[in-house]
Amino acid sequence: MKKTKVLSMILAIVMMTVGCQEITENNTAKEDSKSAISSENIQLTMVKPETINPIMNQDKSVGYIMNLIYDGLFTIDENYDIVPQMAEEYGLSEDGMSVSIKLKDAKWHDGSEVTAQDVQFSVNLIQNNASSPYNLLAQKISSVSVINNKELTIRFKEKYAFSVDTLIFPIVSKSQLSSSGDINSQQKNLIGNGPYKIDRYEQRSGMILSVNEEYYEELPKTIRNIDVSIVPDEEAQVSMVMALQSDITNISLKDLSKFQEKEFNITTYESRDYESIIFNYDNEFLKDINFRKAILHSINREFILEEGYMEDATLVNFPLNSKSKYYDSDLKPFAYNIEKAKSYLEKAKPVKSEGNEQSENTGAENTENKDIQSNNADNKSESENTNNEDSTKSNEESNKKPNSGLDKAEVKKMISELDLKIIVNKENSERLKTAYLVSNNLKAIGIKSTIVEMSSKEIDAAISEKQYDLAIVGWELSSVPDVRDIIASSGYTDEKLTNYMTSLVNATSENQIKDIYKSIQKHIRDNVAFISLVIRDDYIVTNKRLDGKILPNDFDVYEGISNLKIKNK
């Protein structure tokens, strides 16, 4: 397919709304669609690059293409777990302060070998360029020692459980980029080390990528070459796929309805957009574990998923992707149960304390473990759980400092007069719907609430100034599976959680991290530190002329593209 035809097609899409030219431009679209469908190469797009240096690029669409051309020491798989890429062997030192790496027999696209010196150069280049999106990750590195061409040791500035997870930056060629001149120069960035190599690149029309026959891993025999067209923006990327001028693109929920499954293959995958409900612990009632449990049991998360998010999300119990090796899928969430919510509300009292007196003692936590969702749960088991919880009432209350002198009637009156302020981003329709569903859930157990719709800036200010009771909030999960910042932002803390966090950052093995995360997830659940809702879905749309499975994640939407083949070719 000629690139001039691609560019004319972009203009055609833009001009289709102009009355007198509609017939002419539609005819052009039909001609170009035929040429795209008959192409023996996979057709992709990217927004016009500012640079094709993968270390300096900041555009996602360009980055996705660069991932085809450049590999790193490690990469992120479809489960958002770190996996080796050019690292053949690696081992973390006992003190967790360094990692030794042996490289695979990878080659640059000019035939020269990828060396430990290239890795050292890449780290230095990232550290010396603050605008690199990998700069914060590389700042944790203190030095890179080259042992020989294929072996190196990376030392870190401090002990950090996720040090290896930070080594996901692309490796660039020292020989290509070490000479004087602009590191963003096109000519300096045409030689990669990944499964595809650049055969041709023209800034106006795009790239031709061919299969790297010297790639260090075995590639499918059906792997196809790729044509990459340049488009003005993300909207044009979507339009190109709709017009059959491009084979694959990632789309948002707002564009999903434009694509019919009978015409396109739609792959759903978890994004990194995590959403939850946080509490203001300055509120004396929200300091009380029973009051928080009443709220938790009153909220119908399944219904929120269906009506608030239209099932375009995945329910999660913790701020990690649900298939992450650190996510405890065996730990079940507490059930939506109105009667149980009301019973906890009966026990609730305002808590007066200088510090955080939010958590239960061990006995109470063990009792609460029985109060989880189960596919086999029935009315009898719920009743038994309630009886067991009642038997530990005194234990639960022993860790709190309730307002002295308040009898049950006075507390009940105080609760009836409460009006919880729920803040939500007015520009996020899904969170907005969720806020109203939560408000209705609270009303069902006798808790009044008022929803305040705010802009993003107003939300940030309200949370910072503690001008809320409940907030529906969102986070973009990091490439590094370290959730300490998210937990800290919830405002919840206690001594046990603090100890867990200290142990987590000092862990030196994957099994240690798993065990500590398992304890943290249970502790967060048992104490209702915050209420996890969902991780939003993202989508890849593929032309049905392609056959095979793609394995996208938010960092690499084209992961698995080498598995795709063109039907009847």
From TrEMBL:
Residues 1-20 form the signal peptide. Residues 356-389 have a biased composition (Polar residues). One of its GO terms (molecular function) is peptide transmembrane transporter activity. Residues 349-408 are annotated as: Disordered. Residues 82-365 form the Solute-binding protein family domain. Keywords: Signal, Transport. It comes from the Bacteria. Belongs to the bacterial solute-binding protein 5 family. This is ABC transporter substrate-binding protein. It comes from Romboutsia weinsteinii. The lineage of its organism: Bacteria, Bacillati, Bacillota, Clostridia, Peptostreptococcales.
